[in-house]
Amino acid sequence: MSASTPKPRRYLELTPEERAVYDQLDPQRIPRHVAIIMDGNGRWAGKRRLQRFLGHSQGAETVQYVVETASRIDLPWLTLYAFSLENRLRRPPEEVGFLMKLLHLYLVKNVKRMNDNNVRIAYIGRTHELPPDVQETMRWAADATAKNTGTTLTLALNYGARAEIVDAFRAQLEQQLAAGRTPQEIIATLKQESAEENLGHHLYTAHMPDPDLVVRTSGEFRISNFLLWQIAYAEIFVTDRMWPDFTGLNLLEAIEDYQRRERRYGGLGTPAAEAAPAAGAAPSAEAAPPAEPATILASR
What we know:
β3 (120-124), α6 (132-145) and β4 (152-159) form a beta-alpha-beta unit. This protein has 10 helices and 6 strands, in the order αβααβααβαβαααββα. The longest helix is centred in the middle third of the chain and has 24 residues, at 93-116. The protein is globular and about 60 Å long. Strands 3-4-2-1-5-6 form a 6-stranded parallel beta sheet, sandwiched between helices. The chain is α/β, with parallel strands linked by helices and 300 residues long. Mean pLDDT is 89; it is low at 275-300. The protein folds into 2 domains: 14-159 and 210-261, Undecaprenyl pyrophosphate synthetase, CATH 3.40.1180; 161-208, no CATH class. It starts with 15 loop residues before the first helix and ends in a 41-residue tail after the last helix.
């Protein structure tokens, strides 16, 4: 980071270790939106011979520390995969019940800290299917932080990306039927170049930028039905750390790795990034044109 580049207003609230990493970053290339798949609470507890619920409790503590680091570097959007649709349907009822109580407790305990850190909280997912008392607490926390202008913390709750796409298509269809359009007219709109953009307006995340960076903890290399539409061109960073061991420093390290990437969006890289062959070297098979017509996928 250039000495002339202004630091975030709350830079000095970072730990010395966090400042050391932040000083290596380009503030102009901080991602607008980081999404995190928080994984490993149960395994974290199991390795310590603790009950699973203690892993979830420690994971909830981790959330607020990571959120505070995000707010100190002026990260605009942070989305956390907190509770999936599959979790609700496939986990034991006792565990689901505990997670709902933990969500309620997290919100009650941390709204003041969110306000102190200028953090606004929001939610995505089929939240109307959650217990009524939990929904009431969620609305209270959202209202209590609505005027904050810093990081927007979005919790994905009872969320599944396939369900989101189905819900978006259903909402779009209902809107067009309500406008009196015929089935033929609706089908015609799906053939327009703007069809993807129009469907995007009905996603839970329509008001948010797509994630630039997806972080997954616990070393698993899968997306787990998270923001499938939105992360089409996101960079992915996987760490072996379990979520309860993840820190604000690790978030900065993920951003540092992100800034070393070249984002192509399906196009070609910059000329400097394309390695030129050595003088006299034979062209590689990859560079040679195909002997006959073929379908070639651009590097992503």
